[in-house]
Amino acid sequence: MSSANRVAATRGSGRPRQAVLDRELILRTALRLLDERGEQGAGIRDIARELGVRPSALYNHVAGQDDIIAGLRELVSDRIDVDGFGSLPWDAAVRLWARSYRRAFAAHPPTIALLAVRPLVPGSRTGRMYDAVCAGFLAAGWPEERVLTVVVALESFILGSALDQVAPDDMLDPGDGDDLQHFRAAYAARARGLAERRASDAAFETGLDALLAGLGAELAGAGPVGGAALSPDGGSAVGEA
Amino acid sequence: MSSANRVAATRGSGRPRQAVLDRELILRTALRLLDERGEQGAGIRDIARELGVRPSALYNHVAGQDDIIAGLRELVSDRIDVDGFGSLPWDAAVRLWARSYRRAFAAHPPTIALLAVRPLVPGSRTGRMYDAVCAGFLAAGWPEERVLTVVVALESFILGSALDQVAPDDMLDPGDGDDLQHFRAAYAARARGLAERRASDAAFETGLDALLAGLGAELAGAGPVGGAALSPDGGSAVGEA
């Protein structure tokens, strides 16, 4: 193996070791820098500096920034459990998928907003995750044209819940004062009700159950939710100020 | 007015004008820089440079970075419509609130992940938004200890949907190929079904309807969703790999 494929491993304690420069190492380094520094500290040059190589050396293994982002999505979405689809009832499979999905993204908070708005890269492993999910929805009886709309609705909830999981537990603390009486009462009552449970876990399970109850009713034949009475711009008959 | 309170207005075309340096101008500048450059380009020094003043001049009007973030949250959350609480049925009020909430954050995408994880600052106008929402939930009959758990579940969905609204319409395009047959079929069917409607709007309305259906069942007396059968760590009886 040429020396160009060996880099100083800078992570961990002890004496420097030599690691093999490959796609996996580049992606794991990119994910670590993203977690530590945010998107603006995890570019090609940052990764190369961290690995002690020239930026050009990275291009033997990755095609560029978009390819790195596709690889980051693979690293995160590899942790999403789709095994329930095809083996468990639809709602149980969705729970397993949703919980693992939230956990995978909450473990790497900067990936949430980054990956939520970047297109999938065709050919990436992430497409296989979606294929397994779509297969499960279709097998459960979801109409073909509804599957991805429902999946995206669930994903929006999951990713928002991953953000909330990262937030501090006292994020909504109204502080002291004599105003905001309803907010203060609700905040204190939630704390009493939660006991040792995390507020973000309770909110996630509540929303997941509510979504599955509503979606389950559509699947059971109550007709589409969210589709019928809406104008093309997504508005409804309810007037908006 | 002293010259320290006048700054060169750098926005817009035409000859430079003098604007009054006040909290409002500082916050609007911070929001614009955040939108243009992200969090790392919207610090105190960046705002001061943009306004052509020394950083110390800003401290006559804002207490520091946390105060600026609280102010950004006020600017965004001022656009959230709580007028339905107290005048419309609970579910219609939630729809009005949720749609305006999503729109307010989607108009400033970097605020979504930033504000989702920062604690409220006591005394900010945002507390009044939460107070109005809590009052509406309590008046609708929600048990005091359930209100904020349900509100946060809805917020997670709304903020995730705001991220999805910012994403390109073809974000999930599986590309060409012979594999991923379920994913490709679902993607093509969704496009046919959507016609001119935006995929993100359809997903948002679908999820909102499903959440309200599930939560409405709890409110109508079906008992709490997401609360009962869970272990303290938020897990459930469904085994996770």
UniProtKB/TrEMBL annotation, chains A, B:
DNA-binding region(s) from the entry: 43-62
One Gene Ontology term of the molecular function aspect: transcription cis-regulatory region binding
PROSITE patterns in the cross-refs: HTH_TETR_2 (PS50977)
Location of the HTH tetR-type domain: 20-80
Tagged with keyword Transcription regulation: yes
Keyword S-adenosyl-L-methionine among UniProt keywords: no
Keywords: DNA-binding, Repressor, Transcription, Transcription regulation
Domain of life: Bacteria
Any Pfam family matching the protein: TetR_C_1
SUPFAM superfamilies: Homeodomain-like (SSF46689), Tetracyclin repressor-like, C-terminal domain (SSF48498)
Protein name as catalogued: TetR/AcrR family transcriptional regulator C-terminal domain-containing protein
Organism expressing this protein natively: Leucobacter weissii
